[in-house]
Amino acid sequence: MTKKNANEQEIGNSELLPLEVLTPVEMGNADRMTIEGGVPGYRLMLAAGQAVADHALKLGGERILVLAGPGNNGGDGLVAARLLMDAGRPVSVAMLGGPEKLSGDAAQACADFSGKILPFGPDGADVVDVDVDLIVDALFGAGLARGLAGGLGRLADRVNASSARVLAVDLPSGVDGATGNIAGRAIIADLTVTFFRLKPGHLLYPGRANCGQTRLEQIGISADVLAEIDSGISLNTADLWRRDLPRPDHTTHKYSRGHTLVVSGPRLNTGASRLAANAALRIGSGLVTVAAGGEAANIHAAHLTAVMIREMKTPRDLSALLSDARFSAVAIGPAAGLGESTRENVLACLESGAAVVLDADALTIFAEHPDELFEQIGKRDAPVVLTPHSGEYSRLFADPADDRLSALRDAAARSGAIVVLKGANTIVAGPGGEISIAVNAPPWLATAGSGDVLAGMVAGLLAQGMPAFQAASAAVWLHGEAATAFGPGLTADDLPGRIPDVLGKVNCLIENAENLTN
Question: Measured at the alpha carbon of residue 449, what is the angle toward residues 442 and 259, in degrees to the nearest 5?
Answer without folding.
Answer: 105
